[in-house]
Design a protein that fits this description.
- It is built from 10 helices and 20 strands.
- By secondary structure, it is of the alpha/beta class.
- The longest helix is centred in the C-terminal third of the chain and has 17 residues.
Amino acid sequence: MKHVNAVPQPSNRRIAIRVKPAAERALRVGHPWLFDRAIRHQSHEGQPGDLAVIFDSKRRFLAIGLYDPHSHIRVKVLQHHQSATIDANWFVDRLQAAAAIRQPLTTQYTNGYRLVHGENDGLPGLIVDRYAGTLVIKLYTTAWLPHLQPIILGLQAVQPFDRLVLRVSRNTEALTAPHGLYDGSILIGDDLHTPVSFQENGLHFGADVVHGHKTGFFFDQRENRARVRTLSAGRRVLDVFAYSGGFSVYAAAGGATSVVSLDASAPALEAAKANFALNPTYTQHQTLLGDAFDCLEQLQADGQTFDKVIVDPPAFAKSTAEIRPALAAYARLTRLALQVLEPGGLFVIASCSSRVLPGVFSSAVMQAAVDTGRPLTEVTQTGHPLDHPIGFPEGEYLKCIFATAR
């Protein structure tokens, strides 16, 4: 395991922490985060990955987790209510529990999915995605560095693999680099010079797991893509924010007569073309490079229309201050999309911002449609797939609306 053995080990000395009443209440109901401002008393300073034991006001055990002095989320909680020995066996048990939840996917001609969904699988700040024989670990905190070795050994026992890739978030990359660990490091297996191939619902895809967004593909939309497949026969489809063409490929597989994949990234659209080539159909495929808002306006000006428009934008609201601009963006996208959607056409729009609540998102979209004179009739509204479980309120982020337009 390249460089992993050189990472400093966590201290054997546990950090004792006492917390404020509000944090105590949150921890009692299983919240996975302890913020720095919620700490009343701390026995001593620690290093990333040291184990911190949290006590209530009567000095009774509340939780144990990973200490992170570089984050406002000072402790990522691993276990609540009952004390535990956090060791290799503990990690194997937690990984086995996560794998068991995903077992149904393996019978659906699918070998690409999220194996570990961070906090929602009891491993906060740690993501593991499976791409057939390649696993990708993504770290959102350096607190996991001292525990990488037992995690990797646990993955080898629970989900055998040929290659292991490390991805790290922007806020942790500077802290992992001194240990020789970089975003895209190959920890185990051969180097990668081509996309990794995997299967999803019987369709074939390639993903750049070394340089691509997140870990290379967005598995959370799998079930929505499958629904798009069943609703695409004979339709002309526009896929906005197409990225590597996930929705586009499913629409073509469902019998769409034509598909336009629109994205601002040229490499993403090249990946979309490659994914289409992996799944031959008679569907006419065109890529359109440019800003989604500008391109939708141009399509409308050119008089182009579609029978289905899919809008899957990035996270617009990454902070509370961004909620209002995000809702404005969803509303504008709705108005622009409906201008190029045929009467009776299907409109699909998603939000991946946890700060935008489902009801608020739905209201913004529906009101924008009314304001445009094209009210929507909701077909269904969906949430998270099984490999993206929701373990706490902030863990719920994905909303997707399927509706027909007047």
